[in-house]
Amino acid sequence: MTLKTIFISTGEVSGDLQGALLIDALKRQAEALGVELKIVALGGSRMAEAGATLLGDTTSIGSVGLLESLPFVLPTLQIQRRAKQYLRQHPPDLVLLIDYMGPNLSIGSFIRRQLPQVPAVYYIAPQDWVWSASSIVPRNTMTLVEMTDQILAIFPEEARYFEKKGASVSWIGHPLVDRMQSSPTREEARAALGIAPEQIAIALVPASRRQELKYMMPIVFEAAQQLQAKLEGNWELGIGNWELENSAASTNYQAPLFWIPLSLEAYRPAIEAAIQHYGLNATLVAGKTQEVLAAADLAITKSGTVNLELALLNVPQVVLYRVSRLTYSIGRLLKFSIPFMSPPNLVVMRPIVPELLQEQATPENLVKEALELLLNSEKRQQTLLGYQEMRQLLGEVGVCDRAAREILQLADSKKQKQKLSSPSFGYSVSQLREVDQNNLTPNPFPTREGE
Questions:
Q1: Per-residue pLDDT tens digits for 160-173
Q2: What is the DSSP letter of 427?
Q3: Quick one: 60 and 161 in the same domain?
Q4: Are 73 and 132 part of one and the same domain?
């Protein structure tokens, strides 16, 4: 049996999740090919459980913003130094970079300079295709194109963008399409969490990074406090037809509950203290993120991958994001701009979920948008229709296996001076024209009753 070694580099909670999903697929495909697979990685506990040998845990080393990144500079450099030393001593058959832009651009550039014979693949590349800036984004794009042999794009527009810049690209679809195949239904999730059918359940997702605890959790929890006061004793949710009816005198009334999925155990003390401070009727849950999201009638959430998860579960959501004032001001000076910050809106390039950025991200605005989604059936229906449109652009089921086959094929081939001319398992950019003209697949995920 042939032995292949793959080195994977990723970071933060979302990267650990995507890495674990891909490792499972790599093991399946390797077994089918009669290949023994050794995976060494920078990642987290999910990847370790999937079978990777970790050189360092990067799940808590990550941030968005300039000032916010400073505390993580030294830990990041230390882990990178360890990884580069390992790569020099034990050159792998392939290096796989997942998300985690800054550190991965450094590792990819190192591979190109020091180990040019080792193929490099970027999976979930930086979102250069949606950002605009005077010089930084084009420079990052050029670096990425030069250091990679293949980009596995998760969005059609991403594939088009990087191909125009000279990269070898294939569009494989978004890996959450695979993960959500096993997600619980609303009823299953509520049964697992002990939530009654008539109970209002609102998911709060304020943080997967430490900086988000500082800049977003207080806003989210104050909004939840206001929602709790408005909803208690005044409203009841009719699940069957998704209508909220005034029911101050209802004998079946139950107070709203907030559910908070715990992204990292290190954040538990801060979140529990905040729940008590704001007097929230809230439950903090570890290890059952999908159940919390699937059970919710509404989510108030930071921007990120979780927005796509909620959309695929047909859960209406209000999205917010904040960074420090200095970071925001510097970003404006550098002419950074992005049309949308939440993935569902970016996929369709129009607003299907409400977004509140920086000064607009206030408790009052969050409450206003949340009540609109709870009380306005037309608004809710528009959101769900937008989710259906988004789903068509995420690709067909089997994303991780398609990615795994391409990765193993490249790891098995000798490094060529020319980049791969075309993908074997994903869609080439030219094939995307055909995809654009045909609906990919109907939404395979269960919809809510009455929707």
A1: 989 999 999 999 99
A2: B
A3: yes
A4: yes
